[in-house]
Amino acid sequence: MSQEGNVTMEKIVSLCKRRGFVFQGSEIYGGLRGTWDLGPLGVLLNNNIKREWWKMFVESREDMYGLDAAILMNEKVWEASGHTGAGFSDPLVECEKCKRRFRADHLENKEVCSECGGKLGEERDFNLMFETKVGAQGDVKSYLRPETAQGIFVNFKNVVDSMSPKIPFGIAQIGKAFRNEIAPREFLFRVREFEQMEIEYFVKEEDWKEKFEALRADIQKWHAHIGLSSENIKEHEVPENDLAHYSKRTIDFEYNYPGKGFDELAGFAYRTDHDLKNHMEASGVSLEYVEPDGNKFIPHVLEPSFGVGRAFTAVLAEAYTEDEMGGETRTLLRLPAYLAPYRVAVSPLLKNKPELVEKARNAFSDLKKEFGNVAWDDNGNIGKRYRRQDEIGTPYCVTIDFDTIEKDDTVTVRDRDTGEQVRVAVGDLVNYFREKFNS
Ligand code: ATP
Q1: Do the strands 410-415 and 421-425 form a parallel or antiparallel pair, or are they unpaired?
Q2: pLDDT at residue 30 is higher than 90
Q3: Which runs of consecutive H residues, i.e. helices, occur in 89-245?
């Protein structure tokens, strides 16, 4: 939608900073490349995305189990998964003159440095894992996990033993992942610390195709649910010769990012029994699934994997709109109500009239009790408040004015997208919004 207009990444980044969504990491010390901090409104949007994902993929289903594994894991996990080897490296080249480093597969000119014109050195593998030391002696090597998936595989047996799930079933996890990307760039798109929402879905080998299609449809539903329009999503079928050696089929879900074009938003791979088999061999612990009739096998795995930051960026890009209202250009975020940082903002028409403020305070606290993320806004005049709330995507503004206290106990409810205003009785407000948000 917004891609037809004049949305740019610069405008989104600027709005994010100005309105408290995203700040540069360690900013007052000059920053730390590849890190970003979520501000007060960013946390709300980010949490809303994760909550909706969890609701859709875990809570609303009977075949999904949640997990929250440790970020630090035994180094043997990463040896078994192949992450310590070349499998988790990117090709790096360094300029012999200015010493800048580049990801070779992202370079157009492989000979000459794009920054200083110097000669580029030999290509070498660069492992993306952050190494760390554990314990007071510092003698136990570990890594900051580069994906949440392995935490799921190593807990497969624990979940099976404690929950007795019937196959097919999935284990889902949301959490931080760390990759020492050679060239972090493009806002939240490629960073060194990010969040993933991942599912390992365990199936019988003969069922993988059917379940692949079912999960693929669920992923499409998810992207529609967070407001991404189908013309801005492309499913890229990874060609056979580009597939990881263990994968028989992978689809990258790509989003049409402003100024960048289509690039990965989420990945979906059929990983065969590769992961459980490797961990079984390396740990010596059986990771077979036993059916009630005694039949034993290593389940095959389907893996939908989502980056929260990339979803966050896509949601903002899709919602960002500039239009004209009352003869003025305005910026608004057309966020679905369940993603908006605040669902409602409440204002007294004038902040120096105690009777208006008291009435507004009461409405505010009733709404806040019911919906949580409700804003109190009494800065500037009412027109400015509406613009400010439009810009952060608040779907409704409630204003308490003189009619409320002198006439009929009704308030103005203003709609973000249309600017339309209706009068609603104070006593009906909670129900009014309950209905709006449920529809
Ligand atoms: P890319 O090809 O863009 O590097 P990938 O194929 O290595 O991504 P996966 O390992 O499949 O990514 O990770 C799953 C998801 O995690 C990606 O679809 C993306 O949303 C997110 N992700 C991966 N790396 C990063 C990163 N450095 N910054 C932000 N998100 C990331």
Answers
A1: antiparallel
A2: yes
A3: 149-154, 156-163, 208-225
Structurally, the chain folds into a number of domains equal to 2
Q: Is residue 228 situated within a structural domain? A: yes
User: Distance from the CA of 147 to the center of ligand 1, in angstroms?
Assistant: 9
Residue of the nearest CA to atom 30 in ligand 1?
307
Cβ 344 vs Cβ 395: under 8 Å: yes
| Domain CATH code at residue 404 | 3.40.50.800
Return the half-sphere exposure (C-beta side, CA atoms, 13 A cut-off) of residue 130: 16
The confidence score (pLDDT) of residue 6 equals 79
325-349 residue pLDDT tens? 989 999 999 999 999 999 999 999 9
Q: Which amino acid is at 160?
A: V
Query: pTM of the predicted model, to two decimals?
Result: 0.96
Sign of CA dihedral 306, 307, 308, 311: negative
Residues near ligand 1 (Cβ within 6 A): 147, 179, 181, 190-191, 194, 196, 264, 266-267, 305-307, 309-310
- Dist. CA 208–CA 300, nearest whole Å: 7
Q: How many CA atoms, within 13 angstroms, populate the side-chain half-sphere of residue 50? A: 19
Q: Whose CA is nearest to atom 23 of ligand 1?
A: 307
